Amino acid sequence: MSDFRNISEYIVPENFKMSKGQKRIIEYISHHYDSAAFMTASKLADSVGVSESTVVRFAFELGFDGFGDFKKALGDIVKNKLTSVQRMEIISSKIGDEDVLRNVVLSD
After folding, report:
1. Cα atoms found within 13 Å of the Cα of residue 106, Cβ hemisphere only
2. How far apart are the first and last CA of the chain?
3. Which of 38, 44, 48, 52 is the most buried (most CB within 10 A)?
């Protein structure tokens, strides 16, 4: 799957000054947006190599009410960029093969 390198255009205001940790978050999301949209703040922090509080503060500083809203916005971007088949493959890798179709239909 190709990288979604312009993710920052969708979620980061033009004049937003990022710390090193925040730049790492955006860099990670740009390369792994398809799985980052399904991660918890803790899992994203571990994957990026920053603290969970850095991830949560990043979401707040972008103007979201919390990490959940940030994750929802990222999920909306992913929905618009990925086909249904690609989404099924991602979900299948997260939950296993049992009831994949049922879970995809319910989440859509």
Report:
1. 6
2. 21
3. 44
Contact between residue 55 and residue 23 where contact means Cβ atoms under 8 Å apart: no
* Distance of alpha carbon 63 from alpha carbon 88, whole angstroms: 30
Average pLDDT over residues 68-82: 81
Q: Could you give the CA distance from residue 30 to residue 7 in angstroms, rounded to a whole number?
A: 6
- Provide CB contacts within 8 A for 26, sequence distance 6+: 7, 8, 12, 18
pLDDT of residue 48: 95
Distance CA 51, CA 44 (A): 9
pTM of the model: 0.66
Cβ atoms of 50 and 21 closer than 8 Å: yes
